[in-house]
Amino acid sequence: MAVQESVAAGLEAGVDASADMGSGTAPRARHIRSFVRRQGRVSNAQQRYHQEMMAKIGVPYAAARLDLDMLFGRVAPRILEIGFGMGETSAAIAALHPGNDYLGIEVHTPGVGSLCKLVAERGLHNQRIVQHDAVEVLRDMLPPASLAGVHIFFPDPWPKLRHHKRRLLQAPFVALLASRLQPGGYLHCATDWEDYAQQMLAVLSAETLLENTASGYAPRPEHRPQTRFEQRGRRLGHGVWDLVFRRRLDSLQAENDRQDEFA
Ligand SMILES: C[S@@+](CC[C@H](N)C(=O)[O-])C[C@H]1O[C@@H](n2cnc3c(N)ncnc32)[C@H](O)[C@@H]1O
User: How far apart are the CA of 23 and the centre of ligand 1, in A?
Assistant: First the structure.
């Protein structure tokens, strides 16, 4: 099966039973979401900063490729973070590396408001936010081979077997991620669920554009601050597994092929 077909098939695997059936029209295929929209209480501060800052650093979802140089107003290494939660880790990393640009994706409004507040309070100039499904942002907005790195810290573990299909890190999405990395760019994932760690190791190892920087799991990189979910996991007695893969330097030809296929 061609990469494009397998990605499309995977992303749209299991057409959502609740998909819009329309009146007499064919069902619209939707990929299975890796999140559920939670109400969650939005504090006054989160709401205020969300409103004020998303007008400045928010990037509305559109089915059109982003010009990242224009978005950040400079040329610099671009690091994507998927599912930043309340954004403490994102803000800490962005503050430590002013020479890099950071694009955070999150769907949860209190979390987006929280990162907006941290960005405003710390005067960070290198953080932008998209509040939308990361699968669609990667697929529709990010150009192939445009990212120097990707962070996915403690993605929702979906521990019940019947929910495993909701896990973000599955082969089709990993192929999409790999296509958006520059050759040499890294993908750093961490989880506190052992069976998800094993799944990540298997799917990342099977992606031909990627190579492992470690043999198996990676030592926890110094630059990754402890995230909120990690602290919670540790309180519950969970272990933590880091995985750091790189896009192969020699994957240029494959990159060109995939650029055509994902375009
Ligand atoms: C378990 S939390 C981890 C948050 C944070 N990284 C941490 O370690 O504290 C996972 C986050 O990913 C977000 N998320 C899940 N799937 C997503 C998707 N497809 N697009 C954007 N955000 C997503 C959820 O809203 C949630 O906030």
Answer: 34
